[in-house]
Amino acid sequence: MQTLAAIACRPEASRGRLHAEPGSATRTAFQRDRDRVIHCGAFRRLQYKTQVFIYHEGDYYRTRLTHSLEVAQIARSICRHLGLNEDLAEAVALAHDLGHTPFGHAGETALSAVMQPFGGFDHNEQSFRILTELEHRYATFDGLNLTWECLEGLVKHNGPLSDPRPSLVAYKARQDLEFSSHPSAEAQVAALSDDIAYNNHDIADGLRAGILQEEDLAELPMVGAVFEEVHRLYPDLEPGRFHYEAFRRLMTAMVNDLLEETQRRIAEAKPETPDAVRALEKPLVGFSEAVGQAQLAIKRYLFQRLYRDYRVNRMMVKADRVVRELFTYYLEAPRCLPDDWRVRAETAGDEAATARLIADYIAGMTDRYALAEHAKLFDLYQRM
Fold this sequence. Notes:
Blueprint: H1 29-39, H2 41-45, H3 64-82, H4 86-95, H5 104-114, H6 123-134, H7 148-155, H8 166-172, H9 185-209, H10 223-233, H11 239-269, H12 274-279, H13 289-305, H14 310-332, H15 339-346, H16 351-363, H17 367-378
Helix pairs in contact: 1-4, 3-4, 3-9, 4-7, 4-9, 5-14, 9-11, 9-13, 10-11, 14-16, 14-17, 15-16
């Protein structure tokens, strides 16, 4: 059994669930959180939701599901070394992308635009709504009824909230997640594991797609040095093995830097409880200044060279059109929604509530389902 540090969240000391439930004889509260996320419908649909490339463009590109699993693995490894609760970090990591729309950021941008008159759309807020109301699995409550610590870690995935979204404000009356403080150390680990995973894997997928070229990475902080080292050590290595070896080393370097810097911050701040971690002026978990700047440089590079490449943009424009046209169609004719959604639309009450319901429906679609629905509605020769 793992020995936990003083600052680790302990399941027996959890602030509990919104709806009281008896404990489990075989699992801790945080293990139950993780299991509930894995078994929910929104998690399964991540298999066919885009990370960068549309799902059918290749079997080896990351999806939201494989990304979430990779984030969880990194988070568990870091927590094990720091004496933090692996199960809580894993649950937060697995849940953090549940609210993503089909077609990645293009889908979210489109849905945010059409929802602007009705309160907007944000994938982090959507993840929270899935976990607290949209999943309908249990007999006595909506959502998954996760622990306070897991929900707190999710809503503060990007740090304290100074301007929380409407559904979070409404939820606060039921359960105060203390938006203005930092999350637990475990949640901070999950958030930075997310950065480590997508920076590495988006570069890898970009190389595999032929959009990024190895020589263009030479000047990129950390990446160029690692590539040069692997070339020096293994000059004749085939490309597939070379890239795997390089990204294995790059991820290890990022993780080791995070561990070293976090241990330095722990020694400096000397927090003694999870609440002491939350009360600190700055995050307890983090990269060194040099590696933090390298991470920002990698993100800027990916934005310019991968996410804005014309081949990605062409598909993203298609995705934008699909999402916008689906939303407009259903808002004008909610009677064309599938029966269970149609019944809910009929009792929504007003246009804003109907729009939110339609946004929930579209956000829950996989890439392939959204494309199929669009074809059914707009292709006159497609069977309904």
